[in-house]
Design brief:
This protein has 593 residues and is α+β, with helices and mostly antiparallel strands. The chain has helices at 59-62, 122-127, 129-132, 136-158, 199-207, 246-264, 279-286, 312-317, 336-348, 373-390, 405-422, 463-466, 498-507, 512-526, 540-547, 578-584, and strands at residues 20-32, 36-42, 47-53, 70-79, 94-105, 162-163, 180-183, 191-194, 212-220, 233-242, 269-270, 276-278, 300-301, 324-330, 355-361, 368-371, 397-403, 430-431, 433-437, 442-444, 450-452, 478-483, 486-493, 533-539. The strands form six sheets. It has an eight-stranded mixed β-sheet, with helices on both faces. A five-stranded mixed beta barrel has the order 1-2-3-5-4. α5 packs across α14. The longest helix is centred in the first third of the chain and has 23 residues, at 136-158. It is globular and about 95 Å long.
């Protein structure tokens, strides 16, 4: 017999009754039923119930066991009485009568329980992550992640993509986040960088003549943490294709993502209609460039109904250039109580409040009337025009925000989400996707300078000619895939012509010499015949987070950092030794220096 096991803890059933077997695993739980001991023995695959009575040669040793000891059990398979069958276990029809037991690894007193899904503080869970991962929920999440990655690989290979690995130690480049720098021992004073993404390498793979590339790539970014983003590193499905337009990228990616969600969320509706929504329309309709389309609410501009109206706040606001009034329809939200609650929500978000109108049965019974402070100020004609524009009826409401769109769009988006949740309008158990396209190439920074708004390597729509006008009017062949309020994919058709690349970076303040210094390898490659190419990257962690139905990305990462970018298990970051600093010719400045 094998030294440790003849079967796993999920293998045995009634066909094994009477057999002598050997199992190894962790003591999940010990129960003493007055002279009869029951052990739930757990391994990676499942749980088997082991019993020992006073006649068992192993009884005395089994009495000493505690939770999470690793043991080996020798015994004989018995059928359970029909009344004792456990349908929740794959092995629930049998149990193993122990004839021998060996302790393979004893455990100290546990700092946190493994049995049951106790909601323990995250700091404790991350400090003892190896224990946390023994629990059913985290263990299932990691297996889901493994199976998702395997499925992605199979789907990409099936579509004719080839997997290649790109360097982990490389040069720093401005890609929208801070680099993690690595000092060079052989070249004192110089630093490598961990790649924010394999962007330049995958483009050079296209120049090298490999038509369809993918990689499950580690990426490193020194970012502020969020619930849906790791502060240090993450994995992405990295994709690049030659001789393509953005529609070709969409056609290649949709079957992979669609199939993935259908495979791993079989009880949910995975919508196959992936609309294309411009970045500008997405902000207008949803207040976000990653809209949750399960919420049917679509915001609209209603400025004309307030211009010159009796509501002085909005009327005066509209006299300023670039201002708008936008409405958030709220079907079934037509009660003063609900409107007051949403007004309070807006105040918590830092606004003075939200104006609102709701429509109800007229007090004289003659039909429908508009109610609320705004309705009284602008009159029945304007309120009726608003109602008709928004397609609302009796029992519905609308909320209003005004100003320059960039100052209130994000709050409007959050209000839209809150209204949808409060009114039960959000489609449950579903995934809805949308491609967000036509991103602006540039944006104005707080200090008035022009900078790239997204990926600096995207091709400007209109090519060189577009770059000769106002940079803020230039759109890029840049696209994102949104799903249920999250960005899952970001990509673009690349700028593969050196002269257009130089001009694009020049507008963002990078002279040709700086482009050559930072992107010398890629620029050099483009001068020797570069094909039109494009691609994208999909966040593995975020995909698994959605499939696992959790809102915290750390729940689907094997060994995550905490919110302060600390590895509590391995004590990282840590202070270097003086010897390490001397070898790298570095010194650490005091915190107050």
């Amino acid at each position: 017999m094998h030294a440790y096991r003849s079967h796993t803890c999920a293998d045995l059933n009634t066909t094994n009754v009477g057999q002598e077997v050997r199992l190894s695993g962790w003591v999940h739980r010990v129960r003493d039923h007055g002279g009869v001991l029951f052990i739930d023995l757990r391994d990676h695959y499942g749980i088997t119930q082991v019993l020992a009575d006073s006649d068992s040669p192993a009884f005395a040793e089994i009495e000493k066991l505690r939770a999470e000891w690793v043991i080996r059990i020798d015994g004989r398979v018995k059928a359970r009485d029909a009344s004792l069958v456990n349908p929740k276990l794959a092995t629930g029809e049998i149990e193993v009568y122990a004839t021998g037991m060996t302790v393979l690894g004893a455990s100290e007193e546990l700092p946190m329980p493994v049995f049951g899904e106790v909601d323990y503080p995250e700091e404790t869970r991350l400090t003892y992550r190896f224990l946390d991962l023994r629990r059913d929920g985290p263990h299932a999440n990691m297996m889901l992640r493994s199976n998702v990655v395997r499925s992605i690989r199979n789907r990409m290979w099936h579509q004719g993509f080839n997997e290649f690995q790109t360097p982990i130690i490389t040069a720093s480049s401005p890609e929208g986040a801070r680099d993690f720098l690595v000092p060079s021992r052989l070249h004192p004073g110089k630093f490598y960088a961990l790649p924010q993404a394999p962007q330049q390498f995958k483009q050079m793979i296209m120049v090298a003549g490999f038509d369809r590339y993918f990689q499950i790539a580690p990426c490193f970014r020194d970012e502020d943490p969020r619930a849906d983003r790791s502060p240090t590193d993450f994995y992405q499905l990295d994709v690049e294709m030659s001789f393509v337009q953005q529609e070709d990228v969409f056609a290649a990616v949709q079957p992979v993502i669609q199939g993935l969600f259908e495979e791993f969320a079989p009880t949910k509706t995975v919508h196959a209609d992936w609309p294309l929504i411009s970045y500008r329309d997405s902000l207008l309709w949803y207040g976000s460039d990653k809209p949750d389309l399960r919420n049917p609410i679509k915001m609209q501009v209603v400025s004309e109904h307030f211009a010159g109206s009796g509501f002085a706040i909005f009327a005066k606001l509209l006299e300023n250039e670039g201002t708008q009034i936008r409405a958030i329809p709220a079907p079934t939200g037509g009660s003063r109580k609900f409107c007051d609650r949403m007004n309070a929500f807006a105040q918590k978000e830092g606004l003075p409040g939200m104006g609102y109108i709701f429509w109800r049965k007229a007090e004289d019974g003659s039909g429908m009337e508009a109610a609320g402070p705004l309705a009284k100020n602008i009159g029945p004609e304007r309120t009726e025009a608003i109602r008709q524009q928004l397609g609302l009826n009796e029992g519905d409401a609308a909320f209003f925000l005004g100003g320059k769109p960039e100052t209130f769009e994000s709050i409007a988006g959050r209000a839209r989400n809150e209204i949808g949740r409060e009114l039960g309008l959000i489609e449950e158990n579903a995934f809805r996707f949308a491609w967000i396209v036509d991103f602006p190439m540039y944006e104005k920074t707080d200090d008035g300078k022009i900078d790239f708004s997204h990926n600096p390597f995207s091709m400007p729509q209109g090519g060189m000619e577009a770059l000769m006008g106002n940079p803020l009017d230039v759109y890029a062949y840049q696209y994102d895939l949104a799903c249920n309020g999250y960005e899952l994919i970001s990509g673009g058709i690349r700028n593969h012509k050196p002269e257009i690349m130089y001009k694009a970076f020049e507008l963002a303040g990078y002279p040709n010499s700086e482009v050559d210094k930072r992107f010398g390898g890629m620029v050099k490659a483009f001068k020797y015949g570069a094909p039109p190419h494009g691609g994208c990257a999909a966040g593995i962690d975020r995909i698994v987070m959605l499939l696992a139905d959790t809102q915290n990305i750390r729940e689907v990462i094997m060994f995550p950092m905490n919110q302060r970018a600390e590895d509590l298990l391995m004590n990282a970051p840590s202070e270097p030794t003086n010897e390490q600093l001397r070898e790298l010719r570095l010194r650490v400045l005091p915190k107050d220096a």
